[in-house]
C-alpha cells in the first residue's frame, strides 16, 4: 500500500455535548497527512449470544475524517461493537491499491 489508515475507536472530548453521539471515530490518511474524507464504514453489534453481527449503521467520514452521529444518545447499550472501514474502496477512489481491503 502507499499509505495506511489509523482508525481508533475513542470517545473524543469534542462533540460530546448533550444530544451528540456517545461513539466517535477519527480516520486519518497517513499517506497524505490529511483526514480521510469519504471513507465508508459500518457499525455492527454482536447479537444472539455472540453468534451474529447485526449492522446498525452505514456511514461516511466527513471532511475532518470524523463520523458524527453513529449512535443516537440512548441507543448505546452494553455489548460488543465493531467498526468496519472500507479501506479498499477509499484507495480505489484515489486510483491506488490497498494492502488491506478492510479494517475492523
Automatic annotation (TrEMBL):
Pfam families of this UniProt entry?
A: Transthyretin (PF00576)
Q: Which GO annotations describe the biological process of this protein?
A: purine nucleobase metabolic process
Q: Where is the Transthyretin/hydroxyisourate hydrolase domain?
A: 23-104
Classification via Gene3D superfamilies:
Transthyretin/hydroxyisourate hydrolase domain
For this UniProt record, the keywords arranged alphabetically read as follows:
Gamma-carboxyglutamic acid, Hormone, Secreted, Thyroid hormone
List the record's Gene Ontology CC terms alphabetically.
extracellular region
Q: Which locations, inside or outside the cell, does it occupy?
A: Secreted
Residues of the region (Disordered) are: 1-23
Query: What molecular functions are annotated in GO for this chain?
Result: hormone activity; thyroid hormone binding
Stated role: Thyroid hormone-binding protein. Probably transports thyroxine from the bloodstream to the brain.
Q: How does it assemble?
A: Homotetramer.
Family per record = Belongs to the transthyretin family.
**Entry protein name:** Transthyretin
Organism per entry: Balaenoptera physalus
Amino acid at each position: 500500500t502507499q499509505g495506511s489508515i489509523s482508525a481508533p475507536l475513542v470517545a473524543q472530548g469534542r462533540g460530546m455535548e448533550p444530544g451528540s453521539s456517545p461513539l466517535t471515530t477519527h480516520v486519518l490518511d497517513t499517506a497524505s497527512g490529511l483526514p480521510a474524507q469519504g471513507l465508508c464504514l459500518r457499525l455492527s453489534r454482536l447479537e444472539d449470544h455472540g453468534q451474529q453481527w447485526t449492522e446498525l449503521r452505514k456511514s461516511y467520514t466527513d471532511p475532518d475524517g470524523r463520523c458524527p452521529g453513529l449512535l443516537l444518545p440512548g441507543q448505546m447499550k452494553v455489548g460488543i461493537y465493531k467498526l468496519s472501514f472500507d479501506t479498499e474502496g477509499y484507495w480505489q477512489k484515489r486510483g491506488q491499491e490497498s494492502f488491506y481491503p478492510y479494517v475492523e
